[in-house]
Every structure is written in C-alpha cells, then in structure tokens.
C-alpha cells in the first residue's frame, strides 16, 4: 500500500487525475472503475480539463461504477447515473454504451450477478477509484458486510444516509438501500486508487493505514489484502497518521 500525502483537495485531485490519465494513454481501451460523491468531483474536473486542453481520448475506454441508489430512476437528478453524466460522461468523448452502472430499479440477485458478469466480460477493472466513508465503508459496503461478496443490495446505515442528505435536501429523501459492487468484486481490480480529503476522513484513514488484516467491521481494511493500492490524501485527512508529505 503506497501512501501519497498532498497539501489539499486540489492537489489530491490533480494527482489522482494524473494516474488515471497515464493509464488511459498507455491502455486506450482500459476499464475504469469509477466512484461518486464529493471527493472525486475535483478529479473528474481535472480529467475533463485535460481532455479539453490536451485531447486525451476516452473513445475506446469502458467504465463501470461502484454503486447506485436502489429505487431511483437513472433520470432522477439524485441518481449516480445523473452525477456521472454531469461531472464526467457528458464532457469527454466516451461513447454511449461504454459506461455502465448498477441498475437501481432492478435489485434482484440475478441483476447483481449480471453486473459482475458484465465486468468479467470487459476483462475486469484495470483501475478502481475509491473514496472512504467516515465509518470505513468503500462503495456502499457498510460495516459488517461480507468481505467476499460480489455485487449486492445493501441497507444503508444512518451515518451514511446523513452524510448524503446534503444532496437530497433532507434525510427522509435519502434512499435506504443501494446496489453496490461487493468487496470481492472491488478486490479483483488490478489497481486500486483511494482518495481522501478533509479532517472528517482522518479517523477512517488513520484506521486504514494502521490495519494489518481484513476486518468486516471496518470494510476498507480489506484493501490490506490487495497488492496494488495507492492512497492519495491531503494533510487534513492524514492528520491522524504519521506520513510525511510525498
């Protein structure tokens, strides 16, 4: 596990975008695993800027997203499909039909299995972008989640729903369930890039850095079992760890 310490959110976003851009240039038909939420917004901004200024092409890239809220139509502005369109898909030359998200309107076991089969059919994920929740969740794999599951439906904890309420207006409007890649699916990725910013992530990141084994009570600890993990975090997020600036 390599840890890269940066000054702030902007530098974190630039570093993460550089790693993704390098992969896109080296392997034009790579499969990117993408994440949503506040943390990766700056990374997507940097990738869009690079595409517009340098012409980095996504014409042959395929993408798969970590998760989607259950019961939300893709056309709903609070869906992760809408998020990805707003922040990335609509601003680069990634063709329709080459980006995929879990179907929040079909939460059957069969649909979850089809999503994992789709990822396998693409050749697997070359690089998976991750954030980390305050309770250590990755994707929507909450504490107590199996560390071997594939894509599945999960009940969201109240802390996660409260953290996401700012996007919905009120906690009552936040869905109670989501479809998420399981940790078993995430760990199949050839490379994992976890980004974290802000003091509110310091406790979770501190626990991850100190973890020496996988523990379902802290889902992010499963990353200790992966051989190619890069963490890019700003000084605030690393304030509870002993990591010098890269």
Question: Could you please describe the fold and organization of this structure?
Answer:
This protein is an alpha/beta fold. It has one domain: 3-Layer(aba) Sandwich (Rossmann fold). The protein is built from seven helices and ten strands. The strands form two sheets. It has a seven-stranded parallel sheet, with helices on one face. Strand 2, helix 2 and strand 3 (62-65) form a beta-alpha-beta unit. Helix 1 (9-26) crosses helix 2 (41-54). It is globular and about 40 Å long. The two termini are 14 Å apart. The model has no long low-confidence stretch (mean pLDDT 95).
Topology:
Blueprint: E1 2-6, H1 9-26, E2 31-34, H2 41-54, E3 62-65, E4 67-69, H3 80-87, E5 99-100, H4 109-121, E6 127-130, E7 152-155, H5 158-168, E8 177-180, H6 183-186, E9 192-196, H7 202-210, E10 229-234
Parallel strand pairs: 1-10, 2-3, 2-6, 3-5, 6-9, 9-10
Antiparallel strand pairs: 4-8, 7-8
Helix pairs in contact: 1-2
Keywords: Carbohydrate metabolism, Hydrolase
Function: Catalyzes the reversible isomerization-deamination of glucosamine 6-phosphate (GlcN6P) to form fructose 6-phosphate (Fru6P) and ammonium ion.
EC number: 3.5.99.6
List keywords for this structure.
7 helices, seven-stranded parallel β-sheet, globular, three-stranded antiparallel β-sheet, 246 residues
Rg over CA atoms, rounded to whole Å, is 17 Å
Order of helices and strands: EHEHEEHEHEEHEHEHE
Number of domains: 1
Number of strands: 10
Kindly estimate the percentage of residues that lie in beta strands according to DSSP.
Answer: 15-25%
Strands of the widest sheet, in order across it, are 1-10-9-6-2-3-5
Which residues sit in consecutive blocks of at least 5 with pLDDT less than 50? none
Shape: globular
Percent of residues in helices comes to: 25-40%
Question: Quick one: biggest sheet?
Answer: 7 strands, parallel
Structural class: alpha/beta
What is the class in the CATH system?
A: Alpha Beta
Rounded to the nearest angstrom, the distance between the terminal CA atoms is 14 Å
CATH architecture: 3-Layer(aba) Sandwich
Number of helical segments with 4 or more residues: 7
CATH topology: Rossmann fold
Kindly state the mean pLDDT as a whole number? 95
Catalytic activity: alpha-D-glucosamine 6-phosphate + H2O = beta-D-fructose 6-phosphate + NH4(+)
Pathway: Amino-sugar metabolism; N-acetylneuraminate degradation; D-fructose 6-phosphate from N-acetylneuraminate: step 5/5
Function: Catalyzes the reversible isomerization-deamination of glucosamine 6-phosphate (GlcN6P) to form fructose 6-phosphate (Fru6P) and ammonium ion.
GO molecular function: glucosamine-6-phosphate deaminase activity; identical protein binding
